[in-house]
Amino acid sequence: MVEQDPSVSRETILGGGSPTPGQGFDDTPIGAAAARASQILTPGGAGELPRPQTTRIITIANQKGGVGKTTTTVNIAAGLALHGLGVLVIDLDPQGNASTALGIDHRAPDISSVYELLLGEVRLSDAIQQSPNNAKLFCVPATLDLAGAEIELVSLVARENRLRNALDQQTLTDLGIDYVLIDCPPSLGLLTVNAMVAAKEVLIPIQCEYYALEGVGQLLRNIELVQAHLNPALHVSTVVLTMYDGRTKLADQVADEVRRHFGEKVLQTIIPRSVKVSEAPGFGMTIIEYDPGSRGSMSYLDASRELAMRGVS
Q: Strand 87-91 vs strand 179-183: parallel, antiparallel, or unpaired?
């Protein structure tokens, strides 16, 4: 039995469930969600989290598609920003889904993107855009040009270090960035290697479904190779369980198996499967802006709080 962190709601741990019936509107599911949303949207309502001593650079990676990698990146970023921390999301996926979810128009002509940043054509300060949803949330967007970057990077000098060299610490300090979250494509190619060389931590999202751990072994081997040859400081710091469906016994079995394998690296917070979470990017929002009182929003807020507190401790 995992001891529950008092800062993480019981509803989030279980991945769902309705509030206990009682007296008054706030004790109904709709009323409770409305009360939570009102509290979250009140200035300072989410509270503030302690800032890390140095900027934490975290790569979110899993070469298996559809595990909630981009969703986890943008929603944890939004959760950290809501708690008063400065967050930069670097979108390394040519699809640009993270950019879309953060409300960044990455299809505009002549936009400075992560593609130009990797090729050394622009500086970090030129490529960063502020999310319209939060003054503390920033993004280096991805464009379709990034799809060809793997080929172009092959012939460049220090091809695995392009992103690390581009992350200008002075720019991060000037913007008050506490966290840099790098959203990787669903592959183990040169873009993902760049993300691992630039970061110190890897966060792995794993869905609570069949074949959950399939492919994770290859990811861990790649991390070990990067550790051995390019970035000795890199390590897996966090594992997040996503797409939890409390109606199935399989979800609990997968969660137990992941916890046995990764131990304390697994967040206590479990992200439930939610239609609302999938809808939010279509409106250029994270779930925290789209439906702040929902289970998905509360789960990602808890996950961001847990991630931040682990880093400080």
A: parallel
Residues 272 and 246: beta-carbon distance below 8 Å: yes
Cβ(124)–Cβ(116) under 8 Å? no
Contact of 292 with 40, CB cutoff 8 Å: yes
Contacts of 287 by beta carbon, 8 Å cutoff, 6+ apart: 75, 78, 274, 276, 277, 280, 294, 296, 297, 300
Q: What is the pLDDT of residue 211?
A: 83
Report yes or no: 250 and 209 within 8 Å, Cβ to Cβ: yes
Compute how many other C-beta atoms are within 10 angstroms of the C-beta atom of residue 49. Answer: 21
Counting beta carbons within 10 angstroms of the beta carbon of residue 130, is it exposed (0 to 12), middle (13 to 18) or buried (19 or more)? middle
pTM, whole model, 2 decimals?
Answer: 0.86
Q: Would you say the C-alpha torsion 58, 62, 65, 68 has a positive or negative sign?
A: negative
Task: Report yes or no: 212 and 254 within 8 Å, Cβ to Cβ.
Answer: yes
- pLDDT tens for 74-118 read 999 999 999 999 999 999 999 999 999 999 988 877 889 999 999
- Got the DSSP string for 100-124? HHTT--TTSTT---HHHHHHTSS-H
Among the listed residues 50, 58, 20, the one whose alpha carbon sits nearest the alpha carbon of residue 305: 50
What strands, in cross-sheet order, belong to the sheet with 129-130? 129-130, 137-140, 87-91, 179-183, 56-60, 201-207, 235-244, 266-272
Q: Does the pLDDT value for residue 239 go beyond 90?
A: yes
